Amino acid sequence: MQHPRIIIADDHKMVAELFREVLSPEFDVVAMVADGQDLVTAAAHLKPDVVLADIAMPVLNGLDAGHQVKEVSPATKIIIVTMNPDPEVAAEAFHRGMSGYVVKTCDSSELINAIKDVLRGRTYLSSGVSRDDVAVLRWQNKKFVDEQQRLTPRQIEVLELLVQGRRMKEIGQRLNLSARTVAFHKYRIMEVLGAKSNADLIKYAVRNHITGA
What are the residue boundaries of the HTH luxR-type domain, all occurrences included (predicted)? Predict the structure, then answer.
């Protein structure tokens, strides 16, 4: 029986070696890489079943690298393995398509269980992270995505320019709209998104990659 194939991505060699030692009886570690860009390259070539990725890596962080891995190898399951138990970071990982989030202080058996769970198509959240907080944050992220689908193309254009710090008059000139029309679009955007301030708009835009050119 062929073991599931795994790539380990961690810039701490000792940690990566320890993971390989723990996993080798049940899994086939096909590569170990030390930065996010090498992870994307290796995943595109090897098409692993699972990737274990730290967040804080050189060149490309684990969240961005994981998102790119899903583009080049959609079937690959990605588990973030990190020292950070912050529920907001965990929620962002799931929002970006990761299948699991494991804190490095966990037992080795928990890491193995996480891998087995994601291979069954489930998501896995480490026992060291607040499930209730992550659930709320994931719901908020989903709400953001659903709301984006309700924005018109023109509203998205206005939002991009607002996030860039453009004034109403300048946005109007760029889009051939009156300042009053721009103000109306901004009002509707804030109403749809439930935003209370420009800071809320910026947070939403960054999270959903609406930043313009």
Answer: 144-209
